[in-house]
TrEMBL record:
Name of the protein: 8-oxo-dGTP diphosphatase
EC number: 3.6.1.55
Stored CDD domains: NUDIX_MutT_NudA_like, TMP_TenI
Molecular function terms from GO: 8-oxo-7,8-dihydrodeoxyguanosine triphosphate pyrophosphatase activity; 8-oxo-7,8-dihydroguanosine triphosphate pyrophosphatase activity; 8-oxo-dGDP phosphatase activity; 8-oxo-GDP phosphatase activity; metal ion binding
Record-linked InterPro entries: Aldolase_TIM, MutT-like, Nudix_hydrolase, NUDIX_hydrolase-like_dom_sf, NUDIX_hydrolase_CS, NUDIX_hydrolase_dom, ThiamineP_synth_sf, ThiamineP_synth_TenI
A single BP term in Gene Ontology: DNA replication
SUPFAM superfamilies listed in its UniProt record: Nudix (SSF55811), Thiamin phosphate synthase (SSF51391)
Stretches assigned to the Nudix hydrolase domain: 2-136
Keywords: DNA damage, DNA repair, DNA replication, Hydrolase, Magnesium, Metal-binding, Mutator protein
Stated family: Belongs to the Nudix hydrolase family.
Residues forming coiled coils: none
Superkingdom of origin organism: Bacteria
Cofactor: Mg(2+)
């Protein structure tokens, strides 16, 4: 087996989080003219973070001040197998190419969630572009607790305020007819505001109500032999092995928790942030932190490797 080349890759995000940077490989390099996320090889004895900071200074002339781990992907090119450690870079000093070198043919900012107009893009980056289209907040329904009408009113107000979360319809104890009506109402409301909806553990209902995908419970994930045929598929996980399984199935995201004690699972003490970070280290797909969280936990979650946060009561 050939040696794996460790690479630090930067997902550089503007302050509002809506745009990310791609760089074009210059003449004389393998895959010249292809677009990629900036970064470079991790040197012996160097941490991924240190390599990222060094490479962005050398390539773009900037000094990184805020960054956090996101996900890791392996890809085999004809010339090498690379392990790409993608980190989100959210703050830096200096202007790209102005305060220092620009070792690329070009750079460009693209809008998250939209099909890039740049071509060609290095093939290893396809899942990364889809991951960037994933909202950094998931809202999980609890119509069982507060009633369908009250929850829909709460969601409508949230969407009207400009938020665009991924919405998961859970509520497994509702009668089948009630759950179907509720799911259809959630999908109609979310789609009207440009948000996506996944249905927990019911592919047939997801198709019937026009949802964007399905969300697998940990039990369903264990029994899953191949990725369900939906645009968006995720899974609930409680340990690193389950996240690895979700990655093997090429799912789009995972939930890991509970991070903190929660009324839904009062018997669970929670992973804590160190446990969460250990559980999603090296993950190949975006991971939401779940359990006992509020919006104020977002920064802690991302600092420990989360894509974002999943909220049931805390929004």
């Amino acid at each position: 087996m050939s040696k794996i080349v460790e690479v630090a890759a930067a997902v550089m995000l503007r302050a509002d989080g809506r745009e990310f940077l791609l760089a074009q490989r210059p003449e004389g390099k393998v895959y010249a003219g292809y677009w990629e996320f900036p970064g470079g090889k991790v040197e012996p004895g160097e941490t991924v973070r240190a390599a990222l900071v060094r490479e962005l200074h050398e390539e773009l002339g900037i000094v990184v001040s805020e960054c956090s781990p996101w996900l890791t992907r392996e890809f085999t090119y004809p010339h090498a197998t690379v392990r790409l450690h993608f980190w989100r870079v959210t703050a830096w000093t200096g202007e790209i190419g102005i305060s220092g070198p620009l070792e690329h043919a070009a750079v460009d900012w693209l809008e998250r969630g939209k099909t890039p107009t740049l071509a060609p893009i290095l093939p290893a980056n396809g899942p990364i572009l889809k991951g960037l289209a994933l909202p950094e907040t998931m809202l999980i329904s609890m119509a069982e607790n507060i009633g369908a009408a009250a929850w829909l009113a709460r969601l409508e107000a949230h969407l009207a305020a400009g938020h665009r979360p991924l919405v998961q319809v859970r509520d497994k104890t509702l009668a089948a007819g009630q759950r179907a009506d509720f799911a259809a109402a959630v999908v109609a409301l979310a789609h009207r505001h440009g948000s996506r909806v996944v249905i927990n553990d019911d592919p047939a209902l997801a198709r019937d109500c026009g949802a964007d995908g399905v969300h697998l419970s940990a039990a369903a994930l264990a029994d899953c032999a191949q990725r369900p045929d939906f645009e968006w598929v995720g899974a609930s996980c409680h340990a690193a092995g389950e996240i690895a399984r979700a990655g093997q199935l090429e799912l789009d995201y995972a939930l890991l928790g509970p991070v903190l004690p929660t009324p839904t699972h009062p018997e669970a003490a929670g992973l804590g942030w160190p446990g969460f970070a250990a559980g999603c280290a090296g993950n190949t797909l975006p991971v939401f932190a779940l359990g006992g969280l509020r919006e104020t936990a977002r920064a802690d979650a991302m600092a420990h490797g989360a894509h974002g946060i999943a909220l049931m009561r805390g929004w």
